[in-house]
Amino acid sequence: MTGFLNLDKPEGVSSAYLVNGVKRLVRQAFGKLPCGHMGTLDPLASGVLPIAVGNATRLFDYFLGKKKTYRARFIFGATTETLDREGDRIDGGMVPSPEEIEAALPRFCGKILQKPPKYSAKNLNGEKSYRLARRGEEFVLPAKEVEIFSFELLGKTAEDEFEFSITCGGGTYIRALSRDLASALGTLGFTSMLRRTASGPFTQDTAIPLERLTAENLKNYIIPADMVLPFPVMEVDDPRFYNGVPYAVDRADGVYKVYRGGAFYGTGTVEGGVLRAGKKLC
């Protein structure tokens, strides 16, 4: 059994909590298999959390860099140490107008440098940065390049709060975006609500809560890995290929979904007319 579960994570629980819940159900239904999420969500965030089951966990690197879409609310004129509702509120600065916000958004689109929040899971000298922050230690996380594909103001939701739609590449911190947008406007800001509505091919329309899953119905919700991979198909029946022998093909360079006798095998990569086996998924 291999594939993906598209879970709808609620607020207030960690991504690891949902993975552990899936592991328990998978163990009851199929026996011990690896499980892992394809990109974590903060405990206070909700929304789409794809979880890989079985050999689909080998696709983590592929899904990590996929586009993600969020609905987020930012509060202006205040901040917290955690850049979300979990920290103590520190007031200071003004609340910008919608027009001022709209004018500032274009500078955050495209490839930008972003400094991760101190309260994050980034590793620094072998330790999670949020642990260092909780101990009150002083440290600096290096900025990294992220990509914002769209950043749209949806409207005002309270006197000091605005809602946004954001589509970005993997590794982007929305909490850092609220901090940096506020700074560009000459004020303070933090994220008051965050919901992921899409992660790669997975969307909130088909996401399900963990509570709906049982050991008996689990297989009905597992999405086969080949259904979410956007690569062209190649049928290979030569057994030598599956024993690691490069296979000559007349196909363009790139990654392919490889099938054997009509059954999905995994991925393969063509380079210079030669197909080599990639990740075995089934």
What is the CATH first-level class name of the largest domain? Alpha Beta
In total, the number of domains comes to 3
Relevant CATH superfamily of the largest domain: Pseudouridine synthase
Shape: elongated
Number of helices: 7
Q: Give the tally of β-strands.
A: 18
| Average pLDDT | 93
Name the poorly predicted regions. Answer: none
Query: What class would the helix/strand composition place it in?
Result: alpha+beta
Radius of gyration: 22 Å
> What is the fold named in CATH at topology level of the largest domain?
Pseudouridine synthase
What is the level-2 CATH architecture name of the largest domain? 2-Layer Sandwich
Strand/helix succession? EHEEHEEEHEEEHEEHEEHHEEEEE
User: Considering DSSP H and I runs of 4 or more, what fraction of the residues is helical?
Assistant: 10-25%
* CA(first)-CA(last) distance: 8 Å
Largest sheet: 9 strands, mixed
Q: How big a fraction of the residues is strand?
A: 35-45%
Structure write-up:
This protein is of the alpha+beta class and about 280 residues long. The protein folds into three domains: about 5-65 and about 200-225, 2-Layer Sandwich (Pseudouridine synthase), CATH 3.30.2350; about 70-200, 2-Layer Sandwich (Pseudouridine synthase), CATH 3.30.2350.10; about 230-280, Archaeosine Trna-guanine Transglycosylase, Chain: A, domain 4. Helices cover about 20% and strands about 35% of the residues. The chain contains seven helices and 18 strands. The chain has helices spanning about 15-30, 60-65, 100-105, 130-135, 175-185, 220, 225-230, and strands at about 5-10, 35, 45-55, 70-75, 80, 90, 110-115, 125, 125-130, 145-160, 160-170, 190-200, 200-205, 235, 245-250, 255-260, 265-270, 275-280. The strands form four sheets. Strands 1, 2, 3, 4, 7, 10, 11, 12 and 13 form a nine-stranded mixed beta sheet that branches. A hairpin with a 2-residue loop joins strand 16 and strand 17. The termini are close together.
